[in-house]
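Hallway conversation turned thread

IA: we were arguing at lunch whether anyone had actually written out 2-dehydropantoate 2-reductase end to end. Turns out nobody had. So, for the record, here is the sequence (295 residues) and right after it the structure tokens. Reply here if something looks off.
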Amino acid sequence: MRITIAGSGAIGSLFATYLSEGGHDIHLWTRGNATQIQRKRDENTQIGFASNSPDRLAESDAVFVAVKAFHVEEVLTELAQYLHPDSPVILTHNGMGTDELAARILPNNPLLFATTTHGSLRLSDSHIRHTGKGQTLVGGLNDSGKRCEFLAEVIHHSLPPCTWSDNVYLALWQKLAINCVINPLTAVHKIKNGELLNKKFSEVISSLSEEITNVMLADGMDSDCDIIRQNALQVAKDTAENYSSMNRDLHFKRRSEVDFITGYLISRANIHGIDVPANLSLWQQIKNLEQSYEK
């Protein structure tokens, strides 16, 4: 397949290298104007990718958009100038809330979402490390996207396992629930994920889990407070030595995706008239920290 990957960061480069090794013709779309980009994964042979070609983009059989949630609107607006309306577009990022703007910008394209637990670390501009093997789940966001189950097979062939979901929104909510617990707490307290297993965090984790459950249930999603808490603690245990993405964003004084993680939960809570004080407090603390280094 001819595939364009918009975004050449850690996750975009991970998919680009694996899909290329799987025999696909990969083209990268980036912020710059470079027409050739080099990428190396682990100790594998470096791969050269054609990049930023409007003609290659227009000819793409599928497009992956692997950028931060707050860049999705800008990138999709760029892509829309060249994309064929039949080309499936697969979003992949932390958080939720970009589906409506994607549908507005690309009303005719099949739209999908891919959520992955693979770990990827950018060592330099051209070198990444596959830090943890995980799994990827893909599902359709609109009717035409729900007819693109073959894309899960395409990913699975190159970077297994990848499965298809008939209810990707539930999967996204389940991941969001974990992120709402781990990301802001580790960012505010400047700690690794594993430190959340300390008993001093038990009360706030329980409060967050209860609020998340109430919002998910109001949104029509199956949810259980104890399961959300247990899942978050299990992920914290499994990734004990890791720093969350939000922790790293604040550490390096970058904009975080809090508005699409905790912020999305708060927006849904407001629609349903549900109070979420624990989540709201963490969101405000993150925003205050961001504003402090933006001055």
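OS: looked through it. The CA atoms of residues 194 and 240 lie 4 Å apart.
IA: good, adding that to the notes. Residues 168-189 form the longest helix (22 residues).
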